[in-house]
Amino acid sequence: MNNKTHGLRSWIDELNNAELPAMAVVVHDLLRLSQSTTASVRQLAEVLMRDASLTSKVLRVSNSVYCNPGREVVRTISRAVVVVGFDQVRMIGLSVSLLDGLLKESPREQLQSLLARSFHGAVQARNLAQHVCQQQKEEVFIATLLLNLGELAFWSRGGKPADELVGALADVSVDREKLVKRMLGTGFDQLTLGLLKSWNMGEIGQLVQASQAARGPAAIAVALGAELADAVAADGWTSPAVQALIEPIGSLTGLPPEEAWRQMLGSGEEAVRIAGTCANSDLKAWIPRTDDLPLDLSDLLQMQRESSAQEVRPIVPMDDAPLLQPDLELLKLSLQNLRLMARMPTDVDSALSSLMQALHRGAGFERVMLAVLAERQSCFKARKVAGKGSEGWLQGFTLPHDPTSTLAFARALKQRSMQVVTPFELADQPLGDLLLEQVGEGAFAVAPVLAGERQVGVLYVDMRLSGRPMADTQLSVLRKVAELAGLTLRRLSQG
Q1: Would you tell me how many other CB atoms lie within 10 Å of the CB of residue 475?
Q2: Domains, the chain, with CATH or none
Q3: Is the pTM of this model over 0.85?
Q4: For residues 106 and 74, is the Cβ–Cβ distance under 8 A?
Q5: CB 338 within 8 A of CB 352
Q6: Can you tell me the mean pLDDT for 165-191?
Q7: What is the DSSP annotation of 93-152?
């Protein structure tokens, strides 16, 4: 890959010289067959049999327990059509050619995590399309899978520029979109549409664009499928973001909430199973499982109601105002998610969302902030926040950083340990008054976030909305979450 590649046209030319068009030809021909009402088994076999490895993989998937529970031996494409079905064989061919085509080179973690999300979203979207636009279900599948084609292709064939971007994105204080445009000379969305056009897949490009404005049933299915997969990957199946999608999915499909929830879970498990057979890489490990989730939506909604009843109230508490309480089940799920990310990180935003959820709703800290070192480590700035009244920190919180200072923020990094600060400790400290102006009076704790030897920043937590003391168990969670955050960011910086 040419290190001097810069700009949309330059990147399209580079990626089109990296063997990806061969994959695009197979996808285009299989998509053309899906749009034809007279497509024959012979035509399907001709497309698949151009590539012996593709044929072999399609047959292997067709013999899997998931696709062929009767375990009838399948040795030819025509027999696969009889046993598995024409549409299913065509879908297997599309999936295999796309997944293997992108994963052909040594796959980096950014590619695997994004491709897993894209594949999960594609399965969700296709199953939604069956309710509202049956004839377009395969176009919906492909459009959702290729919604992030520009980024997928870059991580697949980007070479040294991709390595450099991985390192740059490990800095949690940067604006991801602006950084990508500066380093590549174009955005991933523009690269997606440019590649689709160069591959003669303009109709898919139109559906991708329509999904951004959610125009029409097919476009809405694409948008909802992708949004659901992203939300599940970021915060797990029980997160508010996932549960908020039950209503729009039910509205699109005409399903009552219970059935919409079951379809979401069923599609998620289907994605895990298909990814486990269609891809050489272990993509299924990147899709959160549904095994431990309640199929009965009423149980899950009850959990939500209990959680909502504990939401943070105004800073001056009312006598009858319910107080935020730790959600142990959510904490357990969030910590599991963080441990998985520490081993197989997805992206910075997903990691930060998980750690915020673990500390705020899981451990029950009323306000949480990740304050990162910015502007050449000269100051702390808020990168991610959670809790009532914390939103203003994203624009307003700035604290100068002096490595020799005794202020808890600097001390936590210098001593590489959590610091618990009482209301009286800030009175005579330099910058103490400035900190009090921004976060208010009361006790707080900060824990260092360290990506190996690199100082990222600190996690700040408090219970100032209610004035309750921080429990030892809460502080133990803070220490653990800060450690996992550092491990995850270190892995992300290594690519």
Answers
A1: 17
A2: 8-19+104-286 (1.10.3210.10), 328-494 (3.30.450.40)
A3: no
A4: no
A5: no
A6: 89
A7: HHHHHHHHHHSSS---HHHHHHHHHHHHHHHHHHHHHHHH-GGGHHHHHHHHHTTTHHHH
